[in-house]
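hiii, so i know i said id send this last week but things got crazy w the move. better late than never?? heres the sequnce for the chain we talked about at the cafe, plus the structure i predicted for it. fair warning i was half asleep when i ran it
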Amino acid sequence: MSNTKSYKRSFLVLILVLVLCFFANISLGSVSIPFKTIFESLIGTTDNYIIQNYRLPKAITAILVGSGLGISGLLMQTLFRNPLAGPFVLGITSGASLGVALVILGSSIFGGFLATFLLTKWSLVIAASLGSFLVLLLVLIVSSKVRDTMAILIIGLMFGSITAAIVSVLSYFSSAEQLQQYIFWGFGSLGDLDWEEVKVFTLIYSIGILFSILSIKGLNTLLLGENYAKSLGLNIKQSRLLIIIATSLLAGTITAFAGPIAFIGLAIPHVTRQVFNTSNHKILLPAVLLFGAIIMLICDSIAQLPNTDYMLPINAITSLFGAPIVVWLLVRQRKMVF
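okay and structure toks below
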């Protein structure tokens, strides 16, 4: 009973911190906006163009990206029983990167069609989605043939190596302008989405979260080991398939809309385990969702460099801000709760 009350109190604190970070993220920028103005704009009593068309979509994107990557990392670390596993281990983000590279860098090889395609607004999103879907399809085919979960991990890493090699070849034949554009995409960005893109993003994200929730029972059972899970009647292949699809939907969609975001998927599950000191995914999954959203909002607020016209790459901030926290937590605890 005391643990339940403690968890409820912790969740209440996290929700309050999330709301505060949400308002702070909208408030901070090249021009500071008072909380009162933000609240009035959100309830519709005033109309503020900056809030409605730029800062609010960006804050929502930060919440979706942080929570989605955190949950993806949690699913992969539990499935593979590997603390270094993250959303990238299946090669999904590498597939998305390859799709974008084919559009940005491939125009110098394949000619004018891709150059024209690049001018369309949704081109990078579509290319990244197709790339991640192709890798997902390959992973699903492999997972249906392979019994060993660790073999899927290794195959996923090999898919990542193959896509990285193709990107290297494309980079060799590309111009400096194309390379610069691809590098800027690789920095990640939360502020380039309009409301139509946010709606599509939210829809696919919600489906991924639903699959994650349906995976909770299987995740908790897999903590006991695959052999013991089988003895309890768990369908390993079905549970593994559900977890892979959930991760792919979340990680692939996030990479498609926001670019490859570092650190969050790997570190947030560890931070959450250290704070909540539990391996129960009924507690971990919503906690990771909240922690991921909070950390991403904080990182984005720092990246905005308040009261200046500059913005730092979000990837740099997530790594510089988050990695020392994880190191400090692990040194403080002297062991990894898993």
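btw DSSP finds 16 helices and no strands in the chain. thought thatd interest u
miss u guys!!
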